[in-house]
Amino acid sequence: MFSKALVVICFAAVALGKPVARSLQVHETREQVPAAFSLAGPASPDTMLNLRIALVSSDMAGLEKALYDVSTPGSALYGQHLSKEEVEQFVAPTSETVDAVTSWLKENDVEAAKASPAGDWLSISIPVSKANELFDANFSVFTHSKTGTQSIRTLTYSIPTDLKNKLDFVHPTTVFAQPFSGPQFHTPILTPAVNVTSDAVPSSCGSTITPACLQALYGIPTTSNAISSNVLGVSGFIDQFAQKADLKSFLTRLRTDLPSTTTFTLQTLDGGENPQSASDAGIEANLDIQYTVGVASKVPVNFISVGDNNQDGINGFLDIIQFLLNESTPPTVLTTSYGFNEPDLTSSVANNLCNAYMQLGARGTSILFASGDGGVSGSQSQSCTTFIPTFPSGCPFLTSVGATTGITETAADFSSGGFSAIFSQPSYQSSAVSTYLTALGSTNSGKFTKTGRAFPDVSAQGENVEIADGGEFGTVDGTSCSSPIFASVIALLNDNRAAAGKAPLGFLNPFLYSAAGTAALNDVTTGSNPGCNTNGFPAKAGWDPVTGLGTPNFAKLLSATANL
């Protein structure tokens, strides 16, 4: 029989071979599986998980102040955008934070690698069994009902209590981001193309929108200084590829004043590519490229193709921003025609990604996102009882773009808009939103958060927009049309500023909501965005959650921004 002393020695030896037990506390949790997903069963214990750990940054409040200092008209620091290194000083976690988290991981035989330029993200690769043990979680396989796509997630996880103010969150864990869907291609165009440069708006623009229509409606110029440093970035996701042959056909038909050889530069990440066979043509990618190259005349355009090898849990949304933040000179404008329903993301992930947009904005990039195509029911039309805000449109550090339709512009009924349930209302829009809410009265009371960040901020044409795709012409609808159109306007304004030796506009909203900015937009006062068995929000004079502050008037915007 073992002696008592020997038993104690054995227990001591076992204890020395294990990490010291730490008190854990639940960090994030979901009460139930989201409606669009179903639980398939527990994940195999041996399956490897690539997880990222977000660390608490040292001074995000300081970065936010710096962003507003360089973005607010009248500020002594307006236009003095921060360098990569200056931004990273705000974002980087303290050495104490890094040491505490990495020490805990090492105790558990887990090696971490730096996963972001500022070091605020770490990456780890561990089997499901280890992840369940480390985070007191239950990683399982979930299936997206519509597409059959499977992902490994957990409904709850914990972290050591003593790391609460150092470890921000673990990702992807409780995020259930749905796969993107793109715009639909309509019946091929049979009417002859119209190419005008005067202020007269052709009657054909009432049924089909072309670059000539936008030039006439908004006064967009047909030329630029083509300043090489003024780059317009276009985000590409989900194997949507931009075809050079389709772009050439588009320019040949609808921008005869531009060389048909005008093209774009390709950037890739996460295994991204851009194959050029007709069968690879992507409606969304073609739309975005044709209405940047074809509207922002000769402004350099980069198509940034995010591949399927993204493992950030949100379809590459975080990866593309980290990719651009790592560049010494990121694009001066970035347009993205994709997004999520805000409830699909946890508040921690939404806040972290929003803060990444803040970083890029502080660097001098104007970030524009399509607001979504489901009216008040979210990114796409769906059944709901309360209004569903979209993300990233609810982030206060970017510009959300809604949609209009018609020569006498009215709100497109699919234009998503509303109020974030995660982000509070920024001061730059409080007066405009208060005026709208007063006029709205009790309509839709209880269906939205009145104190949330309100969106969209602006709008542009988004219905019956003509594109070339796969060798034929047709039309598409959606705010995914509106964002590249408005982004092209900003790129052309930046072109004029660059020619005058001035900094790019950067984060736009403090200017747009100023008296000068509002006066430079065409107010849209009719239409609404129905959804959730309601008529949604009505467009009204001033800002509204359908068309924002309105559509661009290039001449007025040029005058208003020339002296900023």
TrEMBL record:
Lineage, highest ranks first: Eukaryota, Fungi, Dikarya, Basidiomycota, Agaricomycotina
Annotated InterPro entries: Peptidase_S8/S53_dom, Peptidase_S8/S53_dom_sf, S53_propep, Sedolisin_dom, Tripeptidyl-peptidase_I
Reactions listed under catalytic activity: Release of an N-terminal tripeptide from a polypeptide
Signal peptide coordinates: 1-17
GO biological process: proteolysis
A Pfam family reported for this protein in Swiss-Prot or TrEMBL: Peptidase_S8
Enzyme active site: E284, D288, S480
GO MF entries: metal ion binding; serine-type endopeptidase activity; tripeptidyl-peptidase activity
Binding site for Ca(2+): D523, V524, G542, D544
SMART domains named in the record: Pro-kuma_activ (SM00944)
Entry keywords, A to Z: Calcium, Glycoprotein, Hydrolase, Metal-binding, Protease, Secreted, Serine protease, Signal, Virulence, Zymogen
GO-annotated cellular components: extracellular region
EC nos: 3.4.14.10
Cofactor(s) the protein needs: Ca(2+)
Job description of the protein: Secreted tripeptidyl-peptidase which degrades proteins at acidic pHs and is involved in virulence.
Broad class of the protein's primary localization: secreted
Localization (cell): Secreted, Extracellular space
UniProt protein name: tripeptidyl-peptidase II
Span of domain Peptidase S53: 208-564
SUPFAM superfamilies: Protease propeptides/inhibitors, Subtilisin-like
The organism of origin for this protein: Dichomitus squalens
Record text on cofactor binding: Binds 1 Ca(2+) ion per subunit.
